Amino acid sequence: MEEDKEESSKKKLRQDNPPATAASLFTDDLILEILSRLPAGSVRRFKCVSMPWRDLIADPVNRKKLPQTLAGFLYTTYRSLGGVWSHHFATVSGGAARVDPSLNFLQPKYKYIAYVDTCNGLLLCACSNKENPAAYGEQVCYVVCNPAMRGGSNPSTSGSANRFHCASRLAFDPKVSPHFHVLEFGQNYRNVGSCVTGVDIFSSQTGAWIRRDSELVEQITVLDDFRCVLLGGMLHLVGKLNPVKIYSKRALLVVDMEGKEWKTIHLPDGSSSHDAVGLSQGCLHYASTTKPYVNSNSEKNVVPATTKITLWCLENYDTNEWVLKRSASIDEPSSMPGLKWKVFAIHPDCDTVFLDGGDVLAAYDMQHQKFVRILNLEKGNYQVYLLYVPLFSE
């Protein structure tokens, strides 16, 4: 009888407190503590629990406590007429842009501002008080800023720093430390086939640069137009194994923040020049696009070439084992026939990849195999897009 009474009491409690009502029994501090431990995608879905939860999550005061999802991409355009460089932001969230791409808080101190890299809400820029430092043979200085909070710091330039002859990357993980690192892999791009021999590392904690020689067994050349991934305190950069050839094997160069641990991870066979590496759902992912060449002797019987996308996941980091996660052959949107799609980024929260079509960006859902969003870009863009997730903390 006691058990029946207890069960009846629990049933009545569930009836009297449906999920939305039960959620209101939690304090705001407890809700924020729970949400802060969840992925950004889950936090976004919890806005639908109730009106108070929606307002709590959307409150600007609470944003610094909650994980943020991908807001969009920073990119640059150049107009030869007048030599004008402009910065832009392509939002993927559907709302208004949450960042000022012009970075006017760095002006008028700097006349030249170039995007270099992003990492977990911080942006690395190469800056100069000259409008065209390359023409004057001037070195650039680095500035690391938080566009969401309109603030930045200025790492001193390393002894070998020259943005035009090196691959520079930013490493920052606010969950581990409030400090960031700038890594500069010196390479002479005029010497085809040059390989990484070492790295200069700046730490915002010490305010100093250190030089570390490479301890790689394999020779590798860093590809400058690819974003890097910070995972487990190790920076992962896309490169080509030497000797550099058009179809040479691609691999990831991996190094820690002290330049003491080095290794390479070979990318899946068949990797192409149209590929991307990214951190998605807590794991290292790799995506590649290929478009077969179609040869038709009859103009009346032209067979369209279908773009194929493959998405891989590094399931076992210790054995460097890549597992094919998803594969899709995409049909081009009827409104934009003939575009050559190239994958350039992977969504951090789901199996969606981002494709570059020149003046158009598209998000393609690999799970449901469909285009979910298409964005028109400014003309004359450099087709180098920096993934941006806002950071609402100092």
**What is the average of the pLDDT values?**
79
The level of helicity is 10-25%
Counted beta strands: 24
Largest sheet report:
5 strands, antiparallel
Q: SS-based structural class? A: mainly beta
- Dominant shape: globular
Structural description of this entry:
The protein has helices at residues 2-16, 19-23, 28-35, 40-45, 51-58, 133-136; strands at residues 72-79, 84-91, 112-119, 122-128, 141-146, 151-153, 166-172, 180-186, 198-203, 208-213, 220-222, 229-231, 234-241, 250-256, 262-266, 275-280, 283-290, 307-316, 321-330, 342-346, 352-356, 360-365, 370-376, 386-388. Strands 11, 12, 13, 14 and 15 form a five-stranded antiparallel sheet that branches. Among the domains are: 26-58, no CATH class; 103-267, Beta Barrel (Lipocalin). It is mostly beta strands. The N and C termini lie far apart (59 Å).
